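Protocol check, entry for the methods section draft. Step 1: assemble the input record (protein sequence plus ligand SMILES). Step 2: submit for complex structure prediction. Step 3: store the structure tokens unaltered in the notebook. Ligand used here: flavin-adenine dinucleotide. Step 1 record:
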Amino acid sequence: MDMPIPDAKIIAKKASVVERLQAVLPLNAVIHEDRQVKAYECDALVAYKCPPLCAVLPTSTAEVAAVLRVCHEMGVPVVPRGSGTSLAGGALPTADCVILGVARLNGVIETNYDDRFIRVQSGRTNLSVTGAVEANGFFYAPDPSSQLACAIAGNIAMNSGGAHCLKYGVTTNNLLGVTMVMMDGTITEIGGAHMGAAGLDLLGLICGSEGQLGVVTEATLRILPKPEGARPVLMGFDDNEVAGACVADIIKAGVLPVAIEFMDRPCIEATEKFANAGYPMCEALLIVEVEGSEAEIDEQLGMILKIARKHKPVELREAKDADEAARIWLGRKSAFGAMGQINDYMCLDGTIPVSSLPLVLRRIGELSKQYGLGVGNVFHAGDGNMHPLILYDANKPGDLELCEAMGADILKLCVEVGGCLTGEHGVGIEKRDLMNVQFAPSDLEAQMAVKDVFDPAWLLNPAKVFPLGASETRRIAAK
Amino acid sequence: MTPKTETELAAAIAAATGPLHITGGGTRPIGNPVRGTTLSTAKLNGIILYEPGALTMVVQAGTPVADIEKALAKENQRLAFEPMDHRPLLGTKGTPTIGGIVAANVSGPRRVAVGACRDHMLGVRFVDGRGTIIKNGGRVMKNVTGYDLVKLLSGSYGTLGVLSEVSLKVLPRPDCSATITTAIDDDSRAVAAMSAALGSPFEVTGASHDPATGQTHLRIEGFAGSVAYRSDKMSALMAPFGIVRVTDNTQDSEAIWVAIRDVTAFADQQGDVWRLSLKPSDAHGVVAGLSKMGALYDWGGGLVWVLTTAGHNLRAELGDASGHATLIRASAETRAALPAFHPENATVTALSAGLRAKFDPRAILNSGVMG
Ligand SMILES: Cc1cc2nc3c(=O)[nH]c(=O)nc-3n(C[C@H](O)[C@H](O)[C@H](O)COP(=O)(O)OP(=O)(O)OC[C@H]3O[C@@H](n4cnc5c(N)ncnc54)[C@H](O)[C@@H]3O)c2cc1C
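Step 3, stored output:
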């Protein structure tokens, strides 16, 4: 993966950058010693590492603004960072950048149950947002698997999703407002506790902009009352295609489950060895979860099971109690960890129209043979968001490149069948150079024009999202 | 000008020498008055793709909403955001198109539960002010590839580009609908009742209060057994607020919500109509301080429709309540004098102007409609 050549002039003035940042921040908020900055050299895309010039951990919006003013004046690129769990390299530093971490901005500012929102500082972790309201019977819906660690800031930047977004939507559908600091240090409010924008929907634009338009320091999030109950069923099929047809039939029947998760044989085998969840050995496994009162759950599951039976499942397992429900979810929740036990893996994130599922799974199988790398598929089937996990050996020379080439082929396939490169992880550096597969130059030009408006000097997370070739003139002109 | 293809649309915009007034069906003349040659999308008409099993539909922007709803009904699906038909309120004629709905981000009572039009938008194709064809998003349910111009274009009233095609997320149409109506004659108690309902786990998909009749309506939708169960729960929850009546016939229940959606209460009344977006718990306080002839609460108090005398500047009475007021219906003179859209903070105003200058450098697309 290419990164732009760091600006030697900036690296040369590191001491004065650090000094000016120290002048506007509390003690200990500027991390600049080589040994310490290493902690910020990568995010969860660990194949790529680069220590930043320095990292700052401001404790207020005003301090974030002060940091950005300094960097703006000195022409230093800034890479915002939440918890560093991006799988796309979204928070990967460059050697000439300041990492702006919001981890110390983690408080709750306001909870309002009558109006059903919570206002938090952006460094607060996803799970602890729900943690702040669950005693009152509420929750924050988007639930990425990384929710214990990832921050709302990163969720907003990546427009993160989760297992339950079939019903509740992703981050953008649950975000009401933000406080954001522009690259020149201007602090602005966008949206608020009310619904909808007065004018253009800038909030919708900011959500998913991967830290390139501004630094989000506070967010107003929609919270929802917890459902009375939820219950999953597990179904096994001896054919991917049949499982796919079953998903489509469930959706067409008018039942809207909160989650429909899919695992294929390689993934089932790996999780069974690892988590011992008692999954049936079959080609495809679905976990379907519905919500409501006991009677409502019975009614919905009754319909779902009736549909499933038409597709001749090899296994149908309804959770009778909380324990069984947990066991059904256990394997799915440990799928990534299980695959990680076998080998290093790269997690892809393309989305496809659900109707192309059988074709895409077949082609992935073929690619797996062709490249000689194992693949497990585990994904959100209701919305077509796939997560093929390609296994490779990081210590074997050339294996990472092989894995990346295969990943690129899979993502191209997703686009070919009418889908997209990334459903929830974001582009970052990982899919940056594939953007040309999905978009024409004029499409990318329109997106880059947005960045020109928000960050004319192209200092915020500049080497991400757009193919380096496409953004080059802008990044250079801005210097 | 009535282009028949996206290519013709692009050519027409590229060749334009002056301002263009963009219309779909012309049923929603919302915003500041616009001058210019009329550019209609009415002939960009047709459903391109519909996959009920994937809950997705791709349509040309000029497709009549009625055609879309008919196709969806055949598969027992619908546009869940329940777009309002503005014709009764605005006294307009014509055929509402999907492009007009998206351009104005038109969302009905169900918005409080399932989100706005923009939340059901999966992709757009549009032509910018230079005549360049641009696509963004796609036809899949989850997509974070690049910036979300889909949201930006939704509710941009044609000022950033002319939509040629949109992809939508559609949802199953539930078998049954019931409305729980509670007699509450105090607005603040009505908002409290709606908050209690929306804060319950019973999945209320509409929460509206009409001060004129003193009735608070709550809607429950789903399978028969589930609707019956939740109606009971909701009736019990509402009992302390007033006398409760349940409309459990689906057609009758839906008729109540069509009237709320289309604000028919103000349709035959003289005067200007404003649309206020507020924090629900602020709503009754704000409304109490307004000089008005009528008010109607939707979205649990998050949306208030207000009827005023012609030419009255309602915005001046809002104080510092968070939210915004849009002038929806008024005479041409009033609309020329009072900006239709609420003024925003300096940074947002500058960013919006910057975006318009990029997407429409000649300022020819519905210029000035949003201010
Ligand atoms: C095991 C595992 C499971 C995962 N599961 C899911 C999943 O189910 N669904 C899903 O969607 N994702 C998932 N992810 C990906 C990742 O957790 C999300 O992308 C998450 O939102 C990143 O949050 P973060 O706080 O770690 O952000 P970071 O990794 O720190 O940063 C992510 C991006 O946000 C930007 N950013 C950070 N802070 C700010 C700010 N204050 N203002 C502006 N921009 C900012 C960064 O510049 C970067 O571009 C998973 C990751 C892992 C490791």
